[in-house]
Amino acid sequence: MAHLFTPETPALFLVLRSVVVYGFLLLALRVAGRRELAQMTSFDLVLLLVISNAVQNSINAGDNSLGGGLISAVTLLLLNWGVGFATWRWRRVERLVQGRPIRIVTDGQVHLGALRRELLTLEELRSALRKQGILRISDCRRVVLEPDGTLSAVRMDVEQLSPGELAHPQRHFRATEGSAG
């Protein structure tokens, strides 16, 4: 029974392999682009499942013991928590890992270069806007492709924050909260 929990591969190697595979996948998904993150198709799901199967042996080095699997799983969970904490704590890490928002539409005008760089079609843009209740691109003051792959749209008829409120959003929210009371 004890051999069930005893890894066949040294724990340090399992940790190192997990770190390398996690880093590789983080980089690969970042390079793949935002579009892949938010709009997962059945092909994307199949790819994700195949990749997970392909890297399994890279992580566990053929060690099928319960202990080896638990060491690898805990390492991956800690890495994920660490990356999450670092992106929360340091803006530079957040931009490196997640990227920056990209403006797709300004005052009803589509930025075609941004669409090309992000491999988005006009039909995909229109579809995403319809899901937000916006029928025409010309009805948009702004459309932004967020770092997580979602599209955020602001209608022309929605009141805009002033540049000062955008620069200091906490002041704006405090003033709004205080006036309600």
Describe it.
There is one protein chain. The chain has helices at 2-5, 11-32, 35-38, 42-60, 66-89, 91-98, 112-117, 122-131, 163-167, 169-180, and strands at 102-106, 109-110, 140-145, 151-155. The protein is of the alpha+beta class. It folds into 2 domains: 2-98, no CATH class; 102-158, bsu07140 like domains (CRO Repressor). Strand 1 (102-106) and strand 2 (109-110) form a beta hairpin. The model is unreliable at 166-181 (pLDDT under 50).
User: What radius of gyration results from the CA coordinates?
Assistant: 22 Å
Measure the end-to-end span. Answer: 64 Å
Unreliable stretches, pLDDT < 50, 5 or more residues? 166-181
**Counted beta strands:** 4
What count of domains describes the coordinates? 2
- Overall morphology: elongated
Q: Please report the number of helical segments.
A: 10
Order of strands side by side in the largest beta sheet?
A: 2-1-3-4
Helical amount: 55-70%
Which class best fits the helix and strand makeup? Answer: alpha+beta
Q: Strand percentage, roughly?
A: 5-15%
Mean pLDDT: 81
The major pleated sheet works out as:
4 strands, antiparallel
Entry keywords:
10% strand, alpha+beta, 63% helix, single chain, four-stranded antiparallel sheet, 4 strands, CRO Repressor, 10 helices, 181 residues, disordered C terminus
